[in-house]
Design brief:
The structure is a homohexamer of 319-residue chains. Chain A has a ten-stranded mixed β-sheet with strand order 5-4-1-8-9-10-11-12-13-14, sandwiched between helices. Residues 314-319 of chain A have low confidence and may be disordered. In chain A, helix 1 (35-45) packs across helix 8, helix 8 runs antiparallel to helix 9 and helix 9 (277-291) packs across helix 10. Helix content of chain A is 36%, strand content 24%. Chain A is built from ten helices and 14 strands. Chains A and E meet through strand 3, helix 2, strand 6 and strand 7 of A and strand 3, helix 2, strand 6 and strand 7 of E.
Amino acid sequence: MGELVTFGETMLRLSPPRGQRLETEGGLDARVGGAESNVAAAAASLGTQAVWLSKLPENALGRRAVRSLRSHGVRPEVAWDDSETARLGTYYLEYGAEPRGTDVIYDRAGASVTTVRPEELDFTVFETASVFHTTGITPALSEAAAETTLELLRAAGEANVTRSFDLNYRSKLWSTSEARESYESVLEHVDLLFAPIRDVRAVLDQEGDAESVAYRLADDYDIETVVVTRGESGSVAYTDGEICEQDVINAETIDAIGTGDAFVGGVLAELIAGSDIETALSYGAAAASLKRTVEGDVLVTTREEVEDALDQSTGGISR
Amino acid sequence: MGELVTFGETMLRLSPPRGQRLETEGGLDARVGGAESNVAAAAASLGTQAVWLSKLPENALGRRAVRSLRSHGVRPEVAWDDSETARLGTYYLEYGAEPRGTDVIYDRAGASVTTVRPEELDFTVFETASVFHTTGITPALSEAAAETTLELLRAAGEANVTRSFDLNYRSKLWSTSEARESYESVLEHVDLLFAPIRDVRAVLDQEGDAESVAYRLADDYDIETVVVTRGESGSVAYTDGEICEQDVINAETIDAIGTGDAFVGGVLAELIAGSDIETALSYGAAAASLKRTVEGDVLVTTREEVEDALDQSTGGISR
Amino acid sequence: MGELVTFGETMLRLSPPRGQRLETEGGLDARVGGAESNVAAAAASLGTQAVWLSKLPENALGRRAVRSLRSHGVRPEVAWDDSETARLGTYYLEYGAEPRGTDVIYDRAGASVTTVRPEELDFTVFETASVFHTTGITPALSEAAAETTLELLRAAGEANVTRSFDLNYRSKLWSTSEARESYESVLEHVDLLFAPIRDVRAVLDQEGDAESVAYRLADDYDIETVVVTRGESGSVAYTDGEICEQDVINAETIDAIGTGDAFVGGVLAELIAGSDIETALSYGAAAASLKRTVEGDVLVTTREEVEDALDQSTGGISR
Amino acid sequence: MGELVTFGETMLRLSPPRGQRLETEGGLDARVGGAESNVAAAAASLGTQAVWLSKLPENALGRRAVRSLRSHGVRPEVAWDDSETARLGTYYLEYGAEPRGTDVIYDRAGASVTTVRPEELDFTVFETASVFHTTGITPALSEAAAETTLELLRAAGEANVTRSFDLNYRSKLWSTSEARESYESVLEHVDLLFAPIRDVRAVLDQEGDAESVAYRLADDYDIETVVVTRGESGSVAYTDGEICEQDVINAETIDAIGTGDAFVGGVLAELIAGSDIETALSYGAAAASLKRTVEGDVLVTTREEVEDALDQSTGGISR
Amino acid sequence: MGELVTFGETMLRLSPPRGQRLETEGGLDARVGGAESNVAAAAASLGTQAVWLSKLPENALGRRAVRSLRSHGVRPEVAWDDSETARLGTYYLEYGAEPRGTDVIYDRAGASVTTVRPEELDFTVFETASVFHTTGITPALSEAAAETTLELLRAAGEANVTRSFDLNYRSKLWSTSEARESYESVLEHVDLLFAPIRDVRAVLDQEGDAESVAYRLADDYDIETVVVTRGESGSVAYTDGEICEQDVINAETIDAIGTGDAFVGGVLAELIAGSDIETALSYGAAAASLKRTVEGDVLVTTREEVEDALDQSTGGISR
Amino acid sequence: MGELVTFGETMLRLSPPRGQRLETEGGLDARVGGAESNVAAAAASLGTQAVWLSKLPENALGRRAVRSLRSHGVRPEVAWDDSETARLGTYYLEYGAEPRGTDVIYDRAGASVTTVRPEELDFTVFETASVFHTTGITPALSEAAAETTLELLRAAGEANVTRSFDLNYRSKLWSTSEARESYESVLEHVDLLFAPIRDVRAVLDQEGDAESVAYRLADDYDIETVVVTRGESGSVAYTDGEICEQDVINAETIDAIGTGDAFVGGVLAELIAGSDIETALSYGAAAASLKRTVEGDVLVTTREEVEDALDQSTGGISR
């Protein structure tokens, strides 16, 4: 059973208590989170050996990110930025109750990870890796991050490591046309694609239901497995000519941030553990539902708890 | 676009965390709130220049009230009480879950504001004011407060400032007959009345639905505009022979205190901005719904957020 | 109106904030709770003179238990354990949101109370007692605790004190067969039995609905009054050939722990105050519903609040 | 060994965290404290049976005072004020660091205790009492409180209960001439006087060192034992023609409020336990030093801890 | 008595609790601070009308800065940055105990204020201003900020507003040679200079004691008044051929950040109030000592408290 | 550069805030700590690869210990206890101010680690280890722990791993004669001994100063290097016929717990890094002084910070 290697940015997340506004005085909850490290942590909590590649400022904030990920069982292999401009990206999260939504302010421009170069990272991790995962956020960060993403995908491919990619379109980082161009270059190196249907429609201009989208993406880009996610409507996977579906498992939401990452982490952990895509989707759904019950970007759970959640859900797996 | 001037008491509000009882040990959340200053703050968050007249103890608690209101963008113009008996009124708020209700203990007797005299206040604020607002709480505080209320209404009238009044009947402060007598003397000086239908029935003995109540109040007391509020059933305004209605905009309630004040603040801000009563009611409804999502007596928001809430509500305005 | 005497263990309860996991860093809320002391405290809040018998370590943690119970109006009469192995049992409570449940980790083995001997306790409390109450948890703690339980029941019987017992089966403490054997020896000394229907089925192997179970238990063990509780379906009491029923009173749940104890405390307080079982059940239901709105094992309320809850519930009492 | 009965006001004490100002936003620490209840609690922690007489508002705040005192092992015997004007006095405490001092804002006017009448209190407590204690704060609260103080002193005298009084002059409550007049009427009923030398000089116009002051007070007012306290310079007791002295025991100060009350509580506890005044003074000094290490008005300790503090202090007792 | 106008950056300051490390998990205290706004706030607390000019991101963080300054009594007149790159600078403060020092991590590059242009600011503030103050931090932020600083100084000069400048050299922002060049261009527009002797030596290469430095700076740059500050050794002012000195007033340090700004704020407030430089220095020293007792960058005080601190200091003013 | 392997217990440490008593209500700070894991964490913060061997309950509390150690950079290699009696030891820490000391209540009896067997641990860690460290606490826990300690020492010896041992006598765990017997059997397997002089005197009955004690221990037990620690008087090392001394480096104490472990961790880290004992002692002293400035058992620092502390200390190294 090989390792999961992920690559991307992680940020300091700052949020006022629920019911308080960011603009009024008071302390802030501070946590560490980022799409790819969230995936690594979720998989690690399910028993996967997980590694996270990135670049961090060589200061207390960079060490904070490392400490946090280690506590989640992830092995960070990071390049340290000791330049004068080194910084950890931050984001401010303000929980909203109806009729105002939860609001995010990004303050991530110029973070150390945007200067990452392939030669700064440890490519030997692929020797023991089973899956490499990154998302569409990373190439959106900077040209350097985009190039490094491609280098890593290439190297992973050469090492016969399964390459996993989540579109994760962020409109605050780039336009749909920029994203599309980048996706086109990335997708040819991808074996397993996680595609939020919203992103497929916005960026890749594809219409149709989840099943047809999954089929078309697999076909167009020659991707072995495509998982299309539809928020509250669950997910659909296409692989090897077959479609399988997974409902969402109900959860009381304490913190919705990171739900999608927990889903991906659950799927990857289970695939690495040797299960088929259908079983993997169900673990992903359980991981996603559990994430909602935990404060912070990161799922904290155990394999046993995930399986309990699966058992309790009434036949969440359907075809 | 002129200023909004309000007059009334503001208190220190002390509350244990949700699920804790006031009678058990532990720290208390401490905030500043009062009907008229809440209105001023809500309007200020929508862009209105707002002034608050009052009398405060010349000590750290009085300064706390001033600091809090300034942070909300309100300009306090207060008389300072340096007497030995100077005090800031307080109230204790204990959140309740079904089957016990949220409970309030007032400890406001003898607060500095109860000794306020007209000559202590700065009447020049009316020179730049567009609307003067106070509520039925203020004359209930003391004879001095009642007289000062009347003086301010008279002066506002002479300065051609629109006089706004919210009945805001508080049974813990006076009897319905005392309130009625006071209302009678006040209402002849009022141009815009906010009348909770519950108070109209309890104090002014009027029956009938909101529309007829609005019409009758306008007629009886020769008031230009009457807004009758009906809690969950929304509000109705009568002006110039016309009736318009506004539904409540759904909200997840974090803290219900101050919802009515936010409504009034929203309506006044929009009227001052030049809108008609129908539009103003809708801003009031959005402000009220947003208030419910924020801890404390006071709405913290922006005009943009209010307009987003309006856009999302499905046709909240009806006729 | 005599006193209520209870006997059992009380523990330190440690819990992370909601949405946090016990396995991640951060402070813990710390409270004191135990079935029999919870009952005593609930009854005390309703006006009953309540005494709690137990054995505690002679250290700051033992004193903490005493201080907490005194604050709830209970008079602790405890044996102090100054041995080297003295300890206060603890339990860890992690609130869960769907799909994961609230989780409890007990760390109570070898607590001082497990070494309690009859001669260490003050049996003179029965001179002024009206009711003695303990639960099936106590004999499960240790042989010494079981023997002391029996001695206390015998002494209470000799003093004409009503003996109340709650089955309270805890599968983490003993097997159903061990429990059954113990129950058989206890029940002959019981005048008033609280029997969760789940426990009756699991341990006493009785089938049938609540009414028939109540009748059969009263008959089999010659118990004057049997109250069968059915969770969300309310309770049923059999006494003197008559059955009465009580619905659950709706509540918004802040903390469900201790709901059953509050029910028993409410029933006992009202019986001691001289009411009939039907009225007592209704007070129990109101106490239970109020408990749900309060953080911690222990109901903090007043008789007035309980009666308000009863008044608001729509005809909760039926026959 | 008889009981200690005390009589006086207790208040809710509200304080911002150290380094924060009362005038800026943020939660407040909330505790219960008052001179005479502090004395009762300190004595109770040393093993004395202690009773506290007072009048409290019949609401959650009054219950909070009762709960707090019970947790300290004190038995409150209070009259409940269910009038509309019932209130618990409050005081705001802001810790100061050099060059600004710790600041107190009293908000205690009109508290329920100011309306207390002798007939509302339970005079049967004197039947089992050994010592009755009150302070100069109580007669300063109101005429009713002053009269009740005198009635209690008279009744205690008739019951052969030792009457203890602490001058405790508070310049914010009355003038020195008012205080002097009151003291004159009180002191004829006093057997044991605690006299801060600062108060003796300010109010009773006596000059000279502690020894001569103690002698003179005992002589002038025919008081059996006079303890003169001198802050950092320790205390001096005169009784039966003899003088004994006690140094202050060094302490790191966390919270200085209540130090004097802990001293009195320690002295009274030890006198009630049968020790001579010299030993009692040493327990008082140890209790006072321990109080400084504990947050809040009230000493939380054990007899063992007090004795440890005594043992560690290097010969604190001198002659 | 005219207004004080200041210009500069304000940041969000994030700090873990004392004894905690920034690199370990946990919430962060969040406050707003910046040299020039600190000066404005300190002066405002002493009664000065204070205005703060700056540029802020048009989001919740920018509004937070405005709210905070308003609560301190400062009137912010800011340009709002609604660009995609708008950001509020942040800094992380970790309190250290010996042998490790308090540590600061700046994350302020690219803050909105670095893009400020003269035409974005309201130069009409000089019409009612008495003093304009900025510091050497502002021109170090960016070329745009440096140019705007010069424009403001020129405009202030033309409006006969006293121009005050604090060298405030920050080695993390620029080299000593860059700073020197900038200072040279600024100093010709300065009437009142605050010069930390450390900065004078490091940047302006001047040797000698404070007195001679003050004299030389006044002479070299034709500055009316030069105040040289020497940390624990107090300050020296040269004006009009005369030297006066001011000792430091002792304080227990809770938070040392902002001490220098409070000093400047105190001096400016008193100069604006009409006092001579000697008196002004003493107010500055008292303000500085009080700042040390308050958490946060900003002095929260009153004129009365400052005067009390002055009275208590033993003859702090010398010649 | 090989790894550091340590073996021992780690506990959950629960403590009320400073100035609060454990016996009064309120939340508890919760941290993880234990002598040997503290040493591992301190060494890891200095750059050593550190492994911790132990046995933990297979529940959230065991996982909490693992997560905490991972965050400190330690690799836990633990046996998981899934038995019914599995538990994590706890200890309660109450900070004291003079005249009362800091107090500890252990609740560690029967912790999972007391059942550890050699065959449950991964002895392959010695293949890459440079130093193995444990303390006198571990054999005191249980016979099984004592046997496992000896087995590990033997195996380490066979693998040519330096065996380090800290006497760490705990009077609450065993008598001096029990400890002595155990030490005798352990010391023959030890290459590097840390010997608090207090323990040497109490348990090993040796008199004389630190130098002679160090020499004698080395001689008696044939130990290569003996470090005798003397609290505030610094440490002395004897190795290879030479003595070197190290003063304590001054620190402001926030939390003294774990100071000795940080010292050992610093020494071991530096020895593993290839330094001589003299240099290693100085790193130990710096690590110990930094520990005092950080809340919790565990030193959180960096090599750079340790070296800064060394540079600032005035010639702490002497001969």
